[in-house]
Write a structure and sequence with these properties.
There is one protein chain. The protein is an alpha/beta fold and 114 residues long. It is built from five helices and four strands, in the order E-E-H-H-E-H-H-E-H. The protein has helices spanning 13-17, 33-47, 64-76, 81-87, 95-113, and strands at residues 2-5, 8-12, 50-54, 88-91. It has a four-stranded mixed sheet with strand order 1-2-3-4. A hairpin with a 2-residue loop joins strand 1 and strand 2. Helix 2 (33-47) crosses helix 3 and helix 3 (64-76) crosses helix 5. It is globular. The chain starts with a strand and ends with a helix.
């Protein structure tokens, strides 16, 4: 991870976490979404005003379970969609990932609200 300034951190998943992030839960792989979210992303969100997540430096495409657990899982861990969307900036060449992530956040918020 590197910082742009004292208020912003950049997390490049492929370089800072794993070139092959995989699985929803810790029991699925040692580079699961649950581990990324709880051990990397949440501490960054608690420390910095803005967290830039770079998605493009991985060897394979992201599975829906990884993205849903990472971003939808933030809602289930007590973050609001408004705060997530304000604090997290997703950088990727694939716009579909941004749309998919936003949908996971919205769905998780609706399911937690009921």
């Amino acid at each position: 991870m590197k910082t742009r300034n004292k208020a912003t951190v950049i997390i490049n998943i492929g370089k800072d976490y794993s070139a092959i992030p995989f699985g929803r839960y810790r029991t699925d792989s040692k580079f699961s979404a649950e581990k990324f979210r709880d051990d990397v992303l949440i501490p960054a969100l608690e420390k910095y005003d803005t967290v830039v997540i770079e998605l493009d430096d991985v060897r394979m495409s992201y599975g829906s379970s990884f993205l849903e657990e990472t971003f939808g899982g933030l809602i289930r861990r007590g973050f609001s969609a408004k705060d997530i969307l304000r604090k997290i900036k997703v950088e990727t060449e694939l716009d579909d990932y941004r749309t998919e992530i936003k949908n996971y956040i919205d769905r998780a918020e609706k399911s937690v609200a009921h």
